[in-house]
């Protein structure tokens, strides 16, 4: 009798499980698998795990996800390795290039760049520490950034992490830049003087005073930035005067400070000559 009752109880419990708890059990299995997968990823690839955590948080706040930028990642990894060697955190060590210089040297193109650094025992702890720090939180949740590169190194019992965020700028050839600006000028009624391209390129990259003496244009202007199709106001005013009928466009590598007293490491530089 006792054995029958025991058997019955087992059978009833089994029936109850199959009827009520199977969906819950399946859900728990899925969650466990996802947690294991993320845990494995965090161990094997903490850099991408940190990006995933950032994008999850940004998504919950209605912000666009960040795209992985390999050039930023290379710069971040190099700095993370330096932090691991030093055994302490710093955004810039003595005689080390600045963040914009490091990123540009790695091949990144950007109009805005920010950086978060941390030392913790896991990607979750890193992300959590940033979310509870106003400055780090603001960097990660900046609505203007759209790219990320992360470097991570395990050393001294910790995970040294560098996350570089940027507002990316697509790299364009000089011909592409010149074509884009020429379209803007043509839309304002100017004829593009193709045989003036070399003069415009020379003026773009040379000393202004010296080069201007050898160019027979009535107005010369050059500027640089992430979007050179936004014509400077002095140039717009000259075009609007109706005095000029032709224009030549030349592009070259960015240089100097771009007029903002800050080094320019990304974007484009262009010169326009008016005739």
Brief overview:
The chain is an alpha/beta fold and 275 residues long.
What does this structure look like?
The chain has helices spanning 2-44, 46-60, 70-86, 99-105, 123-131, 134-140, 174-187, 197-205, 208-212, 233-240; strands at residues 67-68, 110-120, 147-155, 158-168, 191-192, 219-225, 246-252, 268-274. The chain is 49% helix and 20% strand. The strands form 2 sheets. Strands 1-3-4-2 form a 4-stranded mixed sheet, sandwiched between helices. It has a 4-stranded mixed sheet with strand order 5-7-8-6. The radius of gyration is 29 Å and the shape is elongated.
Summarize the biggest pleated sheet: 4 strands, mixed
Strand-residue fraction? 15-25%
Mean pLDDT over all positions: 83
Order of helices and strands: HHEHHEHHEEHEHHEHEE
Secondary structure tally, helices:
10
Oligomer: single chain
Biggest sheet, strands in spatial order? 1-3-4-2
- Count the strands? 8
Distance between the termini: 110 Å
Shape: elongated
Low-confidence stretches: 1-22, 35-42, 257-263
Helix share, percent? 40-55%
Protein name: CAP domain-containing protein
Keywords: Signal
Signal peptide: 1-42
Domain SCP: 52-165
């Amino acid at each position: 009798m006792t054995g029958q009752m025991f058997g019955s109880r087992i059978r009833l419990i089994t029936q109850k499980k199959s009827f009520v708890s199977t969906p819950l059990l399946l859900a728990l299995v899925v969650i466990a698998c996802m947690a294991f997968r993320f845990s494995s990823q965090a161990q094997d690839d903490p850099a991408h795990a940190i990006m995933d955590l950032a994008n999850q948080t940004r998504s919950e706040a209605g912000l666009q996800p960040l795209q992985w930028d390999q050039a930023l990642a290379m710069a971040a990894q190099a700095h993370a390795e330096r932090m691991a060697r030093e055994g302490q955190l710093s955004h810039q060590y003595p005689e080390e290039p600045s963040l914009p210089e490091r990123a540009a040297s790695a091949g990144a193109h950007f109009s805005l760049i920010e950086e978060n650094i941390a030392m913790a025992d896991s990607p979750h702890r890193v992300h959590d520490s940033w979310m509870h720090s106003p400055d780090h939180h603001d960097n990660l949740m900046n609505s203007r950034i759209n790219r990320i590169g992360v470097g991570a190194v395990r050393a001294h019992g910790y995970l040294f992490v560098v996350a570089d965020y940027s507002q990316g700028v697509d790299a364009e050839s000089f011909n592409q830049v010149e074509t884009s600006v020429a379209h803007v000028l043509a839309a304002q009624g100017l004829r593009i003087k193709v045989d003036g391209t070399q003069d415009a390129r020379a003026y773009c990259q040379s000393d202004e005073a010296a080069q201007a003496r050898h160019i027979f244009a009535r107005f010369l202007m050059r500027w640089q930035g992430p979007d050179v199709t936004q014509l400077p106001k002095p140039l717009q005013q000259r075009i609007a005067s109706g005095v000029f009928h032709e224009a030549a466009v030349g592009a070259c590598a960015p240089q100097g400070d771009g007029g903002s007293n800050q080094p320019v490491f990304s974007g484009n530089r262009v010169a326009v000559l008016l005739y």
